[in-house]
Amino acid sequence: MKHLLKSYVVFSLLVGLLIGITVKNYRFSVDLPAMGDMGILLLWKDTEREVKDLENNSISLKAQIQQLEAEIALDKEVLNLLKSRDDLKIEIGLGPIAGPGLIVTLDDSPVRPREGDDPSFYIIHESYLRYLINILKKGQARAIGVNSERIQINSNISCVGKVILVNGKRIAPPYEIKAVGDPELMVKVMKQSSFFRFLENYKTLFGLQVSLKVSPYLELSQGTGVIDLESFGVAP
Amino acid sequence: MKIKQSFWIAFSFLIIVVLLVLQFKTRVPLLREVGPTSSREAITYLRTLNEKKDSLLKEIEKLNFKILELNEVSMRKEDFEKSLNQEISKWEALLGLKGITGAGLEISITPMKNQVLSVETFIDLVNDLWGGGALAISINKSRIGWNSYLYQSGNQLSISGRLVDAPFLVEAIGPTEVLESVLRIPGGFEQKMLIQGVELKISIKNNMIISAGGIQ
Q1: Is B93 within the bounds of a domain?
Q2: Which domains are seen in chain A, by residue range?
Q3: Could you tell me if residue B83 is inside a domain?
Q4: Beta-carbon neighbour count of residue B57 at 10 Å?
Q5: I need a labelling partner for A211 at 20 to 30 A (CA). Which of A133, A156, A203, B70 fits?
Q6: Are residues B122 and B175 in the same domain?
Q7: Contact status, residue A121 vs residue A206, Cβ threshold 8 Å
Q8: In tens digits, what is the pLDDT along chain A, a chain of 236 residues?
Q9: Same domain, B139 and B65
Q10: Strand B199-210 vs strand A169-171: parallel, antiparallel, or unpaired?
């Protein structure tokens, strides 16, 4: 009986400990650590949702416009104009595109930094994405996306602390850079570049996760960044 | 009695297993989702989101207006063609197939004698300028188009195979105040250049032309 009581005490302690850790982890996974300022945290979470809704609204209005234009375009001339316009928008990053391509996947190191090592060696920085995109352009990529964000002509990749922002929106690791184009050429150019060699070196030394994967078919959604056509003039 | 005891032991194990599974399940999003880790970062991120929200709201207003316009039965074919041609011309200008006019910044970058600026300096500068709302960028009159790439070729900078040398003149058309502030923020481009001893001059121009030449 005494033995059974001991077992129950140990069991209760274990269950208590596990419940405690689970609740703590759950709280963090839902709220994210914002140094205790819940007001700001909730605000940016809400604003993120609002931006997402507005983007969806904008995409559906654009689709509606395309449909109306197709209804108006009754002759070949106008249809050709519409096609030229849509092709240009695809190049700019405002139209969806699909085709074979390359996926570059990056992630922080799962290894804990060794004593004396700079912890920044173990993480993926936003500049890495910029430099890899530059290399993919050298490899004649036709279109590029990072996670769910399409890289447009005026896309910007920045960071706020450890958070990487693409087109002003938060993206989470692992970072997948998808490039539509000739996969063989892109792999060749990538492997020749000194920056990719630097990343491979960091992979060996610090455990950064870097991989290339050729894909026979990639789909990139249209970009959601706003370009105001009225804010500039065309040079004669 | 023995059956009851076995039941309780099995039940206890079941609870532990459930808790361990929960542990694992809550651990994964903790590691995957990254958000601002301080109030200051959260405010900066919030500001970026609000800018994006404002620009989307303006865009939606314009899209709704366009829908109204297209719904007008009286829209003549000639008018539609004209507006499409104007739109095409603007997209071509953005892509670098045509020149762009507007207010902008002139950034003159003069490294010290024998000093070589890394290609990353220019990639980061171009990224900063796009982030500040630039609509067109050129380096020493070479237009940066969607598919332009930069690399180091010896001591020179190559823009999609076109070699350019110091001193550099970077031109950007866009909202001048924002563009200037993006470059001058603490820890930004201006500060990085000063640390490296590079002579930097940023000037606002009310009317600039950046010529075509972005597409290879």
Answers
A1: no
A2: 2-89 (no CATH), 98-220 (3.30.70.1880)
A3: no
A4: 14
A5: A156
A6: yes
A7: yes
A8: 566 667 777 777 777 777 777 665 554 444 344 445 667 677 788 888 899 999 999 999 998 888 888 887 777 888 889 999 999 999 999 999 999 999 999 999 999 888 888 889 999 999 999 999 999 999 999 999 999 899 998 899 998 888 899 988 889 899 999 999 999 999 999 999 999 999 999 999 999 999 999 999 999 999 888 888 888 899 88
A9: no
A10: unpaired
Residues of B with CB below 8 A from A172's CB? 32-34
Is residue B70 within 8 A of residue A65, CB to CB? The reply is yes
What's the rounded Cα separation, in Å, for the pair A40 and A55?
A: 22
On whether any CB of chain B is under 8 Å from the CB of A56, the answer is no
Question: Which value, in Å, is the radius of gyration of the alpha carbons in chain B?
Answer: 27
Q: What is the pTM of this model?
A: 0.79
Query: If you count residue pairs, one on A and one on B, with CB atoms under 8 Å apart, how many are there?
Result: 251
Mutate to test the interface with B, among A51, A106, A198, A232 (most CBs of B within 10 A): A232
Whether residue B69 sits in one domain with residue B19: no
Structural domain that includes position B39: 35-74
Do B24 and B52 lie in one domain? The reply is: no
- Measured between CB atoms, does A26 come within 8 Å of chain B? yes
- Packing angle of the helix pair A183-192, A194-206 (nearest 10 deg): 70
Is residue B60 domain-shared with residue B140, that is, in the same domain?
Answer: no
Residue B87: inside a domain, yes or no? no
Residues of B within 8 A of A226 (CB-CB) are 52, 55-56, 58-59
Residues of A in contact with B53 (CB under 8 A): 47, 50-51, 54
Measured CA to CA, the distance from residue B93 to residue B51 in angstroms comes to 24
Residues B117 and B63 in one domain: no
Contact B124 A127 (CB under 8 A): yes
Same domain, B42 and B111: no
